[in-house]
Amino acid sequence: MAKTYKTFGGYGVDVASNRSDDLDMLVIEHVSQEQTLSVLDLGSGAGGQSLRMAKAGAVVTAVDRFDFATQFAGMREENCLSETQVKFIQSDVLLWLRAAGNAGFYDYALLQRVIHYFTYEQAVEILCRLKSITTGKLFISVTGIESAVGETYAGRDVSLSERFCVLEKSERETFMILEPVCLYSEKEFQSLLVDSGWNIEKFWTSAFGNSKAVCS
To answer: For a pLDDT cut of 90, what percent of the chain falls above it?
Structure first.
């Protein structure tokens, strides 16, 4: 039976609830090699990747602006996991990071298909704040401006500081992305990471034109 991809509030489909991509699997590979790593899953959606990381031995804190508390509770019960092993917090990612400065440190952070839903200035703030509370690696992806999502993107010729546009109607309907986005070229995304204090260990672009990175 074909899997049904869900969307929440116009922020694209919740891919992680149905499948792992290469970045998700890379996180699991790293998590499995060490004991009880603390991992932030920012923009977690309904918790597909959070569950996989917890089952691999990580202590996961998941944050999303939508209320997935019921889904996380059911997931914990079904998989015999405690709230200590996988905790859900309903909050906007940036607002949570602003409040989390003195709340402790995390070994890893995952930011999959999220950062383009913020303006460039907000993205810089998110990554800088994340750098201050992450002692290990950041696993991150972004929708590329050369991907199918960006084919008719109005922000293509707009400076990064001003680039935050809704997609054309056909793309909104196809990709279920209704909110404004800031799409990045490979070079722009690399600069965003470096300018925010991260060291890029691995960088690649998927067949779909989306950029992914592992940073420290």
So the answer is: 76
d(CA 129, CA 197): 10
Q: What is the DSSP letter of 148?
A: G
Under-70 pLDDT residues of the chain = 1-19, 101-103
Rounded CA separation 64/11 (Å): 11
Provide the 8-state DSSP code for 92. Answer: -
Distances (CA, A) of 209 to 21, 63, 71, 127: 14, 26, 31, 22
Pairing of strands 106-111, 134-142: parallel
Beta-strand ranges (E) seen in the chain are: 38-42, 59-64, 86-90, 106-111, 134-142, 200-205, 211-215
**Tens of pLDDT along 158-213?**
999 999 999 998 888 888 888 999 999 999 999 999 999 999 999 999 998 999 99
pLDDT at site 138: 98
Residue 36 main-chain phi, psi, to 5 deg: 45, 50
Which CATH number is 15-215 given?
3.40.50.150
Helices (H) and strands (E) counted in the chain, each on its own, are 7, 7
